[in-house]
Write a structure and sequence with these properties.
The structure is a single chain. The protein is α+β, with helices and mostly antiparallel strands. It has 2 domains: about 10-25 and about 80-205, 3-Layer(aba) Sandwich (Protein Transport Mog1p, Chain A), CATH 3.40.1000; about 25-75, no CATH class. The chain has 5 helices and 9 strands; from the N terminus they run E-E-H-H-H-E-E-H-E-E-E-E-H-E. It has helices spanning about 30-35, 40-55, 60-75, 110-115, 185-195; strands at about 10-15, 25, 85-90, 95-105, 130-135, 140-150, 155-165, 170-180, 200-205.
Length: about 220
Amino acid sequence: MTEGWVELEHEFSLDLAYDPSRWLELPPRWETEEWKDISVWARDCSQLFWQSYGQNPGESGVAFLTDTLQRLAVAFAPESFDTRAVLRVWEPQTMPLPVIATVKPAQGNREETLRALVGAEAPEAVEPPVAEPFRSELLGEGLRAFRYAQQDDAPEVLAALRYAWRDEEVGADVVLWTATDDTALIIRAAQDIEELAHKVSVGVWDLEPEDEELPGGGA
């Protein structure tokens, strides 16, 4: 039987350690049963968050946060195993900030690829991005860049923060990013995002089936 098997694009996955009191992970789209009831997931999370916040949500509080979480899930929830998406959550009335991490097989020159991944020469940038070295505890030397960019379909300017690394040991490129037209959110979340960047690492799928032991202990 092949039911339940997933065609993997490559053997990498992301390990992302985070504080669940600050971050909420979006459910991946391949979890079919969960995505049938994504509105239930959003409402359950909304109710739990309001309970932990310790204030009365009133008549519309739970419904408002439920709608917000559902819209963010539809927009940002991962569609493949190489991506994780988390929301930095604060007060229930504050818009959460999505942060996305993705891993792909390493390609091209390391420095050129990392600069491209952080948008160091992005043509839509309002001014030259600020790119600087960033060393992660788990992925080693990488780059970090902050920039303001024009949107094609909206007048608001986006603030974007990106981190990128190359894991030479397994041959993978990793990028962690967020973008929003509310610059205050990125400023507020900057320290938490940096802490998250130190907790990103690459996992490698074991795609080889285990050898079954033959009857009688033979090899």
